[in-house]
Amino acid sequence: MRVPKTHLVVLALVLAPVLPGSGGGWAQERSANVPTVAVMDFTGLMVGEGGNSAPLGKAVSAMLVTELSGREGIRVIERQRLQDLLMEQRLTLSGRVSEETAIQVGQMVGAQYVIHGQVTSIGDMTRMDMRAVDVETSEVLEVQKLSDRTSELLSMVVRMADLFMAKLQLQPPSGRPRAEEIPVAATIAFSRGVDFEDRGEKEKAIAQYREALRIYPNHRDAQKALERLTRGGGEDR
Fold it and tell me: What's the topology of domain 5-177?
């Protein structure tokens, strides 16, 4: 999908002052010698109870942002901030993202690397296809194809982050415990919560995040999302 250049120019003006650590726009981000990464929503669904689908690709994107944000030596653009600004500019990046689109958006947000891809869930198995693009050179930096049980989704996201960091010659955290299995039902609830939040349906998003935590109390991303949405006491805990 080609993003109109007029929209991208406006998007650049909006995004430049709000990137993490920025004081004068995305040019300063590039000069800081710390790689900045943007994670676009992965495409792909998984089938939930009663044949209902859940947007698993969005969940993978959110989990990957959280995982990379906890690493040293890298900056990650917050997913919700990127989504909000894309929505403000009426840029709908639905469907599979082309390399050209990833590079254009990366240029506008000051990211040196853009990660995008797709996820496929069939039965109890999930496959992730990830591509990392170097915005400055337009080259594909990394291609990954990971497959595992759906309950090992977090482990797959961690492995994806490790492989990407290795490409940047950055070491993954040491002494980290093995990622726990997440029940499929919790993944479905979290995926639906991300989708509701993107659509501005806050109460439905909160309900789904709480459902994910009910099923799996250690769900890091659901807890983070719930804290963000309920900050300030606007909702009953």
Answer: Rossmann fold (3.40.50)
Q: Which two tokens stand for residue 205?
A: 């998003």
Q: How many CB atoms lie within 10 A of CB 148?
A: 15
Of the pLDDT bands very low, low, confident and very high (cuts 50, 70, 90), residue 177 is confident
Give residue 95's pLDDT: 54
Q: pLDDT confidence of 132, banded at 50, 70, 90?
A: very high
The architecture in CATH of the region 182-237 reads: Alpha Horseshoe (1.25)
The answer to whether 151 touches 184, Cβ cutoff 8 Å, is yes
Domain boundaries in the chain? 5-177, 182-237
The C-alpha atoms of residue 201 and residue 205 are separated, in whole angstroms, by 6
Spatial neighbors of 163 by CB under 8 A, at least 6 apart, are 142, 144
